[in-house]
Amino acid sequence: MRTGNQIKVSEADLSEDMAWKNGDFYFNNVGIASIMRQISRWYDVDIIYQGELTDEKFYGTISRSKNIKQVLNVLEKTKSVHFKVEGRRVLIMK
Questions:
Q1: Which of 9, 27, 70, 74 measures 20 to 30 Å from 58, CA to CA?
Q2: Phi/psi of residue 43, each to 5°?
Q3: What Å distances lie between residue 59 and 1, 26, 45, 85, CA to CA?
Q4: What is the pLDDT along the chain (94 residues), one digit of tens a residue?
Q5: Is-contact 35 16, C-beta < 8 A?
Q6: Long-range contacts of range 35-42, CB-CB < 8 Å, 24 or more positions apart?
Q7: Rounded Cα gap, residues 54 and 64, in angstroms
Q8: Of the candidates 16, 61, 23, 60, which has an alpha carbon nearest to the alpha carbon of residue 42?
């Protein structure tokens, strides 16, 4: 053992990886910008932000087999964000 070198061992949180494998979006203490990046990639849509974003963190699991409007509707139930879908564009409003 050398001095000055350290090894830190911690438990892995496989929840996000398992959720993705099982067909779910998994949000654990993430902001809306991070969530929308995942939604943008999965549904091939452009995200447009109007106004300031909420700094609220989100928690939960949503099936990726749902259509985009169903996913956005679940997020709107938090009353932190509102969405308007225009073709391939999703407008995010506070």
A1: 9
A2: -100, 0
A3: 41, 8, 22, 23
A4: 445 677 777 666 667 667 777 889 999 999 999 999 999 999 999 999 998 888 899 999 999 999 999 999 999 999 989 999 999 999 998 7
A5: no
A6: 35/75, 36/90, 36/92, 39/68, 39/71, 39/72, 39/90, 40/90
A7: 23
A8: 23
Can you tell me the distance from the alpha carbon of 32 to that of 81, in angstroms, rounded to the nearest whole number?
8
Residues 6-15 have pLDDT tens digits of 777 766 666 7
Residue-level pLDDT at 84: 95
Look up residue 1 and give its two tokens: 């053992």
Total length of the chain: 94
